[in-house]
Every structure is written in structure tokens, then in C-alpha cells.
User: Which sequence fits this backbone?
């Protein structure tokens, strides 16, 4: 009987030892899994942190680049979309030989010629119903008027008052024309239409009447008959 009892105790002890070994094995596996998972999490955090830092750095660089580009755009103006150059005719009228873009933009535009004779322009035209301005016009509005078939008379401070007055009187009698001061031009008196431009010596220069006759609502007009009233003043 004692022998049977001892045998039962030994078996129970063996089962307990086996259970303990199994428990220790499970604990080792759990620790290994926990450590492995921790390594994965830590690695993920490190990689994620690096990606985040690089992303923030890229964003800062892009923002700085955009800011710089925007600054340049503001200071220099957007593209007029024009290509080509002027060619001079025997009558002195210069004709733009390349493409003159006609896209509406709300930003300032950097034109390749002064005064401009075409290119991207503001959606609102300058009123050009025989309108005489005493202050400079925005190029972008004036170009839109040229698109409608207007002739734009411009003058610098070097132009005589007599010539300015005579040209103003002519403009006031001519629908689809306008006049304004413009310092940044090559001659004291200039006349511009869409894709056309001429410098005149005086208000009595024969080219004045010729230019008005040829280009007020002339064949160069991209939008003949479009409004010249109720625009920007």
C-alpha cells in the first residue's frame, strides 16, 4: 500500500513538474513575442519619426520655395504669354510678329513691350469710349480694351501740353479710343492697338489720323464690336 501511495505521489509530482516546464516554456515564448513586438513597435516609431521629420523638412522647403516663387511673381509679374517681336513697316507702324495670348488673369502681368499691345489681361477692360485719363491705367485693363478694338494714345511728361490737348480732343470725339499718361515708353507720344504700335512726332503728324482710321475697330481686332463702355475707370 505504501508502495502504491509513493507511486501515486511520484506521478503527481511528475505531472506538476511537467506542468511547470510547460508554463515556463509558455512564459519564454510570451517574453520572446513581447520583446519581438516591442522591437517592431520601436522600429516603427523610429522609422515613422524619421519619415515625419523628413516630411516636415520637405514641406518647409516646399513652402519656402513657394514663398520665394510667389515673391518673384509679385515683383516681376506673371507671364504675358507672348512670343515674338516687333517688325517695323515703311510707315513706321510696328507689328508684333508672334503670338499674343488672350487669357484672362487677375494678377499683374509682365509684358515684353511698353505700352503692351496684347497678351494675358484682366477680365475687366478699361472704359475706352473716347475716354481721356489723367492718371496711368493698369496695363492689364488697357490690353483688354485693345482686344475690343480700341486705340490707346499714351504720352510721357516730355510731350508738349499742346500735343496732349490736341490728341485728347481727338480721342474724346472717337468711340473705341482712350488716352492716358505712360512714362515707361520709348517716345513722348505713342499710339497702340492690338498687335500694332507707332510713335508719332506730334499731334499733327499724319500718322495719327492714319492709325485711327486703320485700327479703331480694325481688322486686327480679336473681338470686334465688344463693349468699350462700363469698364474699369
Assistant:
Amino acid at each position: 500500500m505504501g508502495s502504491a501511495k509513493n507511486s501515486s505521489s511520484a506521478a503527481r509530482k511528475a505531472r506538476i513538474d511537467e506542468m511547470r516546464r510547460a508554463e515556463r516554456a509558455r512564459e519564454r515564448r510570451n517574453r520572446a513575442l513581447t520583446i519581438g513586438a516591442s522591437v517592431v513597435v520601436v522600429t516603427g516609431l523610429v522609422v515613422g519619426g524619421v519619415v515625419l521629420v523628413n516630411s516636415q523638412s520637405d514641406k518647409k522647403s516646399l513652402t519656402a520655395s513657394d514663398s520665394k516663387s510667389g515673391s518673384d511673381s509679385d515683383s516681376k509679374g506673371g507671364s504675358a504669354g507672348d512670343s515674338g517681336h516687333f517688325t517695323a513697316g515703311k510707315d513706321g507702324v510696328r507689328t508684333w510678329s508672334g503670338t499674343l495670348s488672350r487669357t484672362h488673369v487677375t494678377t499683374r502681368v509682365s509684358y515684353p513691350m511698353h505700352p503692351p499691345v496684347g497678351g494675358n489681361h484682366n477680365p475687366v477692360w478699361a472704359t475706352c469710349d473716347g475716354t481721356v485719363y489723367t492718371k496711368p491705367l493698369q496695363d492689364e485693363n488697357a490690353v483688354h480694351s485693345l482686344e475690343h478694338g480700341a486705340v490707346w494714345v499714351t504720352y510721357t511728361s516730355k510731350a508738349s501740353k499742346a500735343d496732349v490737348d490736341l490728341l485728347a480732343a481727338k480721342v474724346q470725339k472717337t468711340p473705341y479710343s482712350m488716352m492716358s499718361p505712360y512714362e515707361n515708353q520709348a517716345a513722348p507720344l505713342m499710339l497702340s492697338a492690338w498687335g500694332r504700335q507707332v510713335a508719332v512726332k506730334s499731334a499733327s503728324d499724319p500718322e495719327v489720323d492714319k492709325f485711327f482710321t486703320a485700327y479703331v475697330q480694325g481688322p486686327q481686332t480679336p473681338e470686334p464690336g465688344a463693349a468699350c463702355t462700363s469698364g474699369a475707370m
Notes: The helical segments are 2-76, 139-147, 161-172, 206-215. Residues 1-76 form one domain. The first strand starts at residue 78 and ends at 79. The chain has two domains: 1-76, 79-215.
